[in-house]
# Entry
Amino acid sequence: MRVLDRSSVLIGLDKLGLTPQDREQIESWTTQPNGLIVATGPTGTGKTTLLYSLLHQINDVGRKIVTVEDPVEYQLSGTVQIAVNKVGLTFPVALRAVLRQTPMF
# Structure
């Protein structure tokens, strides 16, 4: 069983222990009008914490945010979260569908 503590995920980039250079690079991504961030690595390395902290930071009514997750671990209002491995939905199928969308200007 995995116990998920919602308060530990939305802690902010300043509390993740990133080097100043890494934090600056990651924060520069949040100013781009569109993009794709893929986080990979072993279990327990902070992928979810990093990504949800980023999502929380950039989430506003002027942006359309779509996530593809297995599973959706935390509900984040104002975003579209797609859970894969349900009814045959896979990462490639979900990513193709998301990437076909026209970015909003």
Q: What stands out?
A: The two ends are 43 Å apart (CA to CA). The mean pLDDT is 84. Residues 35 and 99 are 10 Å apart (CA to CA).
